[in-house]
Amino acid sequence: MLELFMQPETWVVFATLFALELVLGVDNVVFISVLCERLPLHQRKMARNLGIALAVAARIGLVFSISWVMSLTQPLLTVGDLSLTGRALIMIGGGAFLLAKSGKELWSWLTQVETHHSTHARTGIVVVLLQILAIDAVFSMDSVITAVGLTKEVPIMVAAIVSSAIVMVLIVEKVNKVVNEYPGFKTLALMFLVLLGGLLMAEGFNLHINKGYVYFAMAFGMVMELCHIQLRKKQLQHAKAMSQHVVLPEISQNRLLNQS
Predict the structure, then answer these.
(1) What's the Cα-to-Cα distance from 82 to each of 11, 91, 97, 177, 192, rounded to whole Å?
(2) How far apart are CA 85 and CA 73, in angstroms?
(3) Both 162 and 134 in a single domain?
(4) Which of 60, 95, 129, 145 could disulfide-link to 201, CB 3.0 to 4.6 Å?
(5) Distance CA 51, CA 207 (A)
(6) pLDDT at 119 over 50
(7) With the CA atoms of 80, 86, 90 and 91 taken in that order, what torsion angle do they form, in degrees rounded to the nearest 10?
(8) Claim to verify: residue 194 and residue 228 sit in the same structural domain
(9) Are 79 and 95 in a shared domain?
């Protein structure tokens, strides 16, 4: 195995897979952060870390069952002129679940509907972790199939997955903090998940849409939100300066009256 990682072409493949897993990791981190908001505050960090661990385990499991994953690319069901494979059915089902879940969360967020945490905290965590595991399996399907097209070496795939998981653990708290601190980012995150759900369903029905357009649109939305945050800070600073400018002359007048 050591000789494998001493070859230059191995590192090229590893870098490609690592970048692919990082993109997948962004999707997972956003979804995990949104789902864990349903849990009590003291359980969220543990749930996020367990969710990432389960996501990594699911991807590694798919890598080691690669023959089964590749069999999902064979036609399984024909509806008219449309041939559906096992992969397509998984993408349609997973996309529908993600679309329904994220759409429900977005509606709840926009209408300010208060949600109550489960009275049985353990049951709540289990449900959240199962949802994370199910969606990550759907997310991972394409990445594993793509990885097989790049290399047949399982150690390289596992190394890329584990490396991306380390990055996910390092950024998940920061992403969660930003999403919760700024409402605009949470809205963007939920809309991003809604779009991903729609994309997964479209891919299941053989409607291929370039995901780059979605990522570009979300990146543009993030830049706009950053501009809005900076503008709000500027307005607050201006309002604070104006209030100080009004208060200071009043204090000076009171002092003059007292002296006289």
Answers:
(1) 39, 15, 22, 44, 28
(2) 6
(3) yes
(4) 95
(5) 30
(6) no
(7) -60
(8) no
(9) yes
Confidence of residue 121 (pLDDT cuts 50, 70, 90): very low
Q: DSSP letters along 94-126, please?
A: HHHHHHHHHHHHHHHHHTT---PPPSSHHHHHH
* E strand or H helix at 169: helix 154-181
Say whether both 129 and 250 belong to one domain: no
**Could you tell me if 54 and 163 lie in one domain?**
yes
Which amino acid belongs to residue 232?
R
> Same domain for 120 and 168?
yes
For 86: left if phi > 0, alpha if psi spans -120 to 50, otherwise beta; the answer is: alpha
What is the number of residues in the chain?
A: 260
Distance CA 199, CA 188 (A): 16
Reading the block at residue 3, the tokens are 């000789």
118 with 202, same domain?
Answer: yes
Same domain, 163 and 130: yes
Q: Which two tokens stand for residue 247?
A: 């208060």
Task: With beta carbons less than 8 A apart as the criterion, state whether 164 and 37 touch.
Answer: no
Residue-wise pLDDT tens digits, 142-166 = 677 767 667 777 788 888 888 888 8
Specify the pLDDT at position 255.
Answer: 56
CA atoms within 13 A on the CB side of 163: 17
Whether the CB-CB separation of 204 and 91 falls below 8 Å is answered with yes
Domain count, the chain: 2
Supply the range of the domain harboring residue 258.
Answer: 215-260
Give the residue among 143, 129, 113, 134 at the shortest CA–CA distance from 197. Answer: 134
Report residue 210 CA to chain centroid gap: 18
